[in-house]
Amino acid sequence: MAKPKVFIARKLPDEVVEKFKENMEITMWDSEEEPVDRTRLLQEAGQCDGLITMLTDRVDDELMDQGKKLKIIANMAVGYDNVDIQAADKHGIQITNTPDVLTETTADLTFTLLMAAARRIIEANEHIKEGKWENWSPLFMAGTDVHHKSIGIVGMGRIGQAVARRAKGFGMEILYHNRSRKEEAERELGASYHSFDDLLEKADYVVCLAPLTEETRGMFNQEAFKKMKSSAIFVNASRGALVDERALYEALVRGEVKAAGLDVFEKEPIDADHPLLGLDQVVCLPHIGSASTETRTAMMELCLENTWKVLNGEKPKTPVN
Ligand code: DGY
Q1: Which of 10, 120, 194, 287 is catalytic?
Q2: Mapping DSSP to helix (H, G, I), strand (E, B) and coil, where does residue 192 land?
Q3: 62-121: per-residue pLDDT in tens?
Q4: Catalytic site includes residue 287
Q5: What CATH number labels 5-100+293-311?
Q6: Predicted ipTM?
Q7: Which atom of ligand 1 is nearest to the CA of 237?
Q8: Domain residues of the chain, as ranges?
Q9: pTM attached to this predicted model
């Protein structure tokens, strides 16, 4: 019997893909850096039984409509705001994502951003490398303490809770806001539930980890930044579109918010002349939350396992719909 056809929308390491070739006929886009060409993706959707897509690919009705025998689209991210789930349901296509395997790595990066912004790590590093370090002085590169401060986590899912565990180790008071109460986190981490506004007013660190949905889009707007303490540090490791970047820029320039750590942006890659990149008090990263070799490999393997399971008539490990 002919093997099912699968197309991967980015070049993945051969050694990861190789072991799945026994069961599936796998082809890949030929670049690791450049997203797949839309025409090619549409064409592959029309011929394949399974697709593995990246968060940079638009998985919409047009794409799924091509799929004469398409059964599964495995999206290599925990977030799936690039996928039209209603359209997938309409076409009877299984969507999967990559939760769990990236939780701890993404929490590590989120906490790194928080600490880097608080302790001015990037500014200090640039200062020394540019040969500007001339002296020690009492308030030279003085940042803000992290330990025993309060952290307000917006989006208390798996990654939010993993960040809360790290915060607990730093003796921080943990506040959270979420669609539903997380009783386990309240019991085990001593986290307290707050309304969004209350959290903004009380937290020393406001950390955005909520998924991008129609309800959360733009929730960190001018009004939200105005409610934060002027000493607050804002961190976003979720999706850029939750934040009104102009409002954040203005809040930082006016001193309504002290600093920010951002791993995600409204437009990715962000333009090199974006005003936020010009601010010393902003630490910016190019969407690398889950980017450790171990975790990215686990995400690739999970996508391939999910794809094979569905094509073999089994339930996928991590279904979305
Ligand atoms: C995700 O999985 O959604 C992350 O943003 C990718 O690193």
Answers
A1: 287
A2: strand
A3: 999 998 899 999 999 999 999 999 999 999 999 999 999 999 999 999 999 999 999 999
A4: yes
A5: 3.40.50.720
A6: 0.92
A7: 5
A8: 5-100+293-311, 103-284
A9: 0.96
